[in-house]
Amino acid sequence: MFETVTLCPPDAVFGLTEEFKRDPNPDKVNLTVGVYCDEQGRVPIMRSVQQVEQRMLDEQQGHSYLPIDGLPGYDRLVAELILGPDHPVIQQQRFATVQTPGGTGALRIAGEFLKRQCDVSRIWISNPTWSNHLQIFRAAGLELQTYDYLDERGTGLDFASVCRGVDAAQPGDAVLVHTVCHNPTGVDLDAEQWVELLQRISDKRLYPIFDFAYQGFGAGLEADAEPIRRFVNGAPFQGEALICNSFSKNFNLYGERVGGLTVTASTSETVQAMLSQLKSIVRTTYSNPPRHGGAIVEQVLADDSLRADWERELDGIRERIQSLRDAFVDRMAEVLPGTDFDHIRRQRGMFSYSGISADHVERLKREYGVYLLGSGRINIAGLNRENLDYVCTSIAAVLGDGG
Predict the structure, then answer these.
(1) What phi, psi does 259 have (nearest 5°)?
(2) Ordered domains of the chain (ranges, CATH)
């Protein structure tokens, strides 16, 4: 009966990870999967997370189902983290948040909501983007349209193309924007460009989905949220948005699948109607979210001491990633003089579009066991003091011989 089922191609990132595991090269380096690793190459457990998990173990709170929209305290704290507790949207109760299985779950629920409730048929997404964006919104029944994002070198922003893409959209279309630390490129808009882009989205009456997976990895928790806070504040912008956030990166809770979908509207009554529909979608998709990771985030954000420690550790992660960017650029200048990698210093977050071609990426993998995505995307957070020189000299060897 199942003989008509065809083989699905492996996921580009996780397929490379399996290949990496089989590689016998003792010096191999994996710069593909989007996880933050410390100097020992491990995904660290944050101090505040450890304390809360011990507290939860001691208290033995059980494993009962959560409400459909998740932990009430979590939902409020997530919205306040994104918008700020004194933001008018928070004070006027013009928001609602549902706890989701990671940012991926939030994106899928957002797509389903726009399709079912707002009669949205088309969404505009940057090219390139996180590859799973395309699958998520296609599965939600939306037609995909893309707009060019990068300049001719493929390492910087082409803002004029971004604006042309938004201008080509029709009123009632959706547009997905990476709020900070664009995945996969690391190329972000500056403050003036954000103001112009938000105005165009508002003027065109588009439904914005803010993908906010990296709060704290760009310039800091508050600064990274500024485009969202500005847009939902209202005039001169429309003030209505869907915001998808994740705690995989800034809490290092990858496997716990902790995220949220926050919606804003012009009135609290509208928000309550939206929440009822979001809960209906959740109920028929995964019923309710997992408890453990959400409880960790809720308790850290609600405790002044734990939250301050979390923020300090997050600041340290952001600063370390920037130091790795600087070290990479400086070392490449030494081992391959005349080749400009300074764009990696300017890009932000865990990822960078290196400008390395697909052919050179293949050679790096085959000859040196250095794994990048075919696009040339590097996970900067996969570098450390032990492997950085090997990675740089391997890249220099491949680029320098003209092959």
Answers:
(1) -155, -170
(2) 12-45+316-400 (3.90.1150.10), 65-302 (3.40.640.10)
